[in-house]
Amino acid sequence: MTREPILAALWALLAADARWVTKDRRVQHWADVPPNQQPALFLAVLHEMPHYLRSAAALRWTLQGELYVYANTADRTVPPSAVLSSLLDPIEAVLAPDAMGQPQTLGGLVEVVRLGPGPIVRDDGSLGDQAVALVPFEIVVGP
User: Fold this and answer.
1) Alpha-carbon gap, residue 114 to 112, rounded angstroms
2) Distance CA 12, CA 53 (A)
3) Model-level pTM greater than 0.90?
């Protein structure tokens, strides 16, 4: 497995959306991203797990990470949760299987990139103007 081309391909797909004012593979805390620099998207790889198949020579990797999504609105007529939801939908679309049910493979670099495992953790900004979501993803890379 060669990690950087895989992560660069995933980032290129996600960061291509013009909605992102700030986008970076280095995670920043939402308090360090001013409201006028949001919505913001960050990517972090958290775990790499090897899985040995029939022999030690056949190795499958699973990389797990999170996308950090920040949305801030001072417009009292628009709840931060609505802005956050509108940002999560295109992420889901990028990582979803295509119309024929084929998984996202980053152009054949990996077996699959998908949401999960686990829940999307959200703070919808109900106590202020800042909304945050942590979106889990996993990448499976075969032998």
Assistant:
1) 6
2) 30
3) yes
Please tell me whether residue 55 adopts helix, strand or coil conformation: coil
Domains and CATH numbers, the chain: 3-141 (3.30.2000.30)
Contacts of 127 (CB under 8 A, 6+ apart): none
pLDDT of 70-79, one tens digit each?
A: 999 878 888 8
CA distances from 99 to 2, 27, 106, 121 (A): 28, 32, 16, 27
Please write the tens of the pLDDT for every residue from 91-109: 999 999 988 999 999 999 9
Cβ contact 9:95 at 8 Å: no
Alpha-carbon gap, residue 28 to 4, rounded angstroms: 20
130 contacts: CB under 8 Å, gap ≥ 6: 30, 35, 70, 71, 72, 80, 123
